[in-house]
Write a structure and sequence with these properties.
The structure holds 2 protein chains of 2 kinds. Chain A is mainly β. Chain A is built from no helices and 11 strands. Chain B is an all-beta fold. The chains are: A mainly beta, B mainly beta. At the A-B interface, strand 5 and strand 10 of A face strand 5, strand 6, strand 10 and strand 11 of B.
Chain lengths: ~110, ~110
């Protein structure tokens, strides 16, 4: 069974631009969660989607948004990029809602904002 | 708010030495507990998990962890480390209720010399 895939793997953007990251969960998994990983703050939860609905949201500004499609694939969008948004963005999928199942992580998208 | 504390930022061991990485969390209710590992250049992988039952859980590659509820701890252990165990280890905790997020510790870097 294929693992969680994320595209693109690397991305360079300039301040003020917006970016869209994509995540394909493991086949059969219906929940997708997003995390931001930085050296200073570590791994921080962004949001979780299940059945195309956002079920949980972390403490990030409204510039960070996401959505989930009927095939469980998910995208996250960051608008008006800031230098501090440079990070590894990880997607994780689970069979059901993340509070009941373990999560499997993808390789991440490395975003650099210049 | 929940928090997870990993006591050691960087641990250096020789091959065959025993390993114990500390993890404490702050939350008074029922929790699900996880240890993830991130090998150099690879994505986060689940080492082991605790949902309920026997507080001593065994994971992959000879790792085990013990949940001590009274101490709010979930320490990771391995009797004899190998050079290939060099990686970053993350403890993660989630309250066992709907709408909660997976909270990660800051991680412990383990360096094993051969």
């Amino acid at each position: 069974k294929a693992g969680v895939t994320q595209t693109p793997r690397y991305l360079i953007k300039t301040r003020g631009q917006q970016v869209t990251l994509s995540c394909s969960p493991i086949s059969g998994h219906r929940s997708v969660s997003w995390y931001q990983q930085t050296p200073g703050q570590g791994l921080q939860f962004l949001f979780e989607y299940f059945s195309e609905t956002q079920r949980n949201k972390g403490n990030f500004p409204g510039r960070f948004s996401g959505r989930q499609f009927s095939n469980s694939r998910s995208e996250m969008n960051v608008s008006t990029l800031e230098l501090g948004d440079s990070a590894l963005y990880l997607c994780a999928s689970s069979l059901g809602l993340a509070n009941s199942y373990e999560q499997y992580f993808g390789p991440g998208t490395r975003l650099t904002v210049t | 708010a929940q928090s997870v504390s990993q006591h050691n930022h960087h641990v250096i061991l020789s091959e065959a030495a025993s390993l114990e990485l500390g993890c404490n969390y702050s939350y008074g209710g029922t929790v699900n507990l996880f240890w993830y590992v991130q090998y150099p250049g690879q994505h986060l992988q689940l080492l082991l998990k605790y949902f309920s039952g026997d507080p001593l859980v065994k994971g992959i590659k000879g790792f085990e962890a013990e949940f001590i509820k009274s101490k709010f701890s979930f320490n990771l252990r391995k009797p004899s480390v190998q050079w290939s165990d060099t990686a970053e280890y993350f403890c993660a905790v989630r309250a066992n209720q709907a709408g909660t997020a997976l909270i990660f510790g800051k991680g412990t870097t383990l360096s094993v010399s051969s």
